[in-house]
Design brief:
Elements (H helix, E strand, L loop, with lengths): L7 E8 L2 H11 L3 E7 L6 E8 L2 E16 L5 E13 L6 E2 L6 E2 L5 E15 L1 H10 L6 E2 L7 H18 L6 H18 L2 E2 L13 H12 L7 H8 L3 H12 L3 H18 L8 H7 L5 H12 L3 H6 L2
Helix pairs in contact: 2-4, 3-4, 5-6, 6-7, 8-10
């Protein structure tokens, strides 16, 4: 998505040439069909970047109008404007940026429009985020960039970005410390936006099922923690009965059954990656909330067509 490929990225460019500004930004972001124009008598821009191949911080000031298209990228980008106008996408799906509120770029290609704006971005390499997700037992596929972020998460994100920024801008920072900042950015991204970790039924991806999709993605992200149907209903702003009906209609099972199915899948993943000589199936089951060995074994066999001990032997 971005073109600087050196081990350490350091860019600070500014000027008053509109054509040069458009070329600099379009090149840095691999942009498609970018167009720039002035909005007043005086034009000025600045583009700064610092980081490495794992994580890069970027800042843009653009005293004019900028439109174009961003291709689908391999990395994750969270950006926010501090002033001006910014719109990601178009039509009914357009996201109008609010100054100070972080917004993840869409997973797919999208058009954009900015005007007289100041912008900050954090770009994190996909492999780094997937690595941190794997440590949490997640197989990351994408993020829900349309999710509403609560104020607490935003405050935590800002505090983390301040720390990362101070360290990344320090030319004396060691490569090890820089690497830790990249990891911290990946962790913070997983805390800020709910990752979609499963292939969801096509119906669940429709706009009218957005709340149920967010609940399902929450289950995948937090399957290792206590989750109740009542908690999920409150999250979706639905009654418990309405949530149960929606799960049955869209997923063919109750919320509790879905939670159990996700946990059984996680156990299978863990058993396949474990050493049979040192792994105790009962310990793994208890970690995922299954206290009764007999009932767990039966539920596992019903879902996966074999007993957990058989799965462990195949690892």
């Amino acid at each position: 998505m971005m073109n600087e490929h050196n081990d350490r990225i350091r860019v600070d460019e500014r000027g008053t040439d509109l054509a040069a500004a458009k070329q600099t930004l379009a090149t840095a972001y691999d942009g498609i069909e970018w167009d720039a124009g002035t909005t007043g008598d005086a034009f000025a821009y600045r583009y700064a970047a610092a980081g490495d191949a794992t994580m890069t911080l970027r800042a843009v000031h653009f005293g004019g109008r900028l439109t174009g298209e961003m291709p689908a990228g391999g990395d994750f980008v969270v950006q926010w404007i501090t002033s001006g106008v910014g719109v990601l996408g178009d039509g009914d799906s357009a996201i109008h940026l609010v100054p100070g509120r972080p917004q993840m770029w869409p997973n797919e290609a999208f058009r954009f429009r900015f005007e007289d704006y100041d912008q900050r971005l954090v770009q994190v390499n996909r492999a780094a985020v997937e690595g941190v997700a794997a440590e949490r037992g997640l197989t990351l596929r994408r993020f829900d960039h349309t999710a509403r972020i609560d104020d607490t998460a935003i405050r935590q994100w800002r505090q983390t970005v301040q720390l990362i920024s101070a360290t990344t801008m320090d030319r004396q920072a060691s490569p090890l410390l820089q690497a830790e900042m990249g990891r911290l950015a990946a962790v913070s991204l997983l805390e800020l936006y709910p990752p979609a970790t499963a292939d969801l039924p096509p119906e669940l991806l429709l706009p009218q099922h957005r709340r149920i999709r967010q609940v399902v993605e929450y289950v995948h992200e937090h399957a290792h923690l206590p989750i109740t149907s009542t908690e999920l209903a409150a999250m979706a702003h639905l009654s418990l009965r309405a949530l149960q009906a929606a799960f049955q209609r869209l997923l063919g099972m109750s919320p509790n059954s879905y939670i159990r199915a996700v946990r059984l899948d996680r156990i299978r993943t863990e058993l396949l990656a474990s050493d049979p000589a040192t792994t105790n199936v009962a310990d793994v089951a208890r970690y995922w909330g299954f206290a009764h060995a007999g009932r767990f074994s039966g539920a596992y066999a019903e879902r996966h067509g074999e007993y957990p001990s058989e799965t462990l032997r195949r690892s």
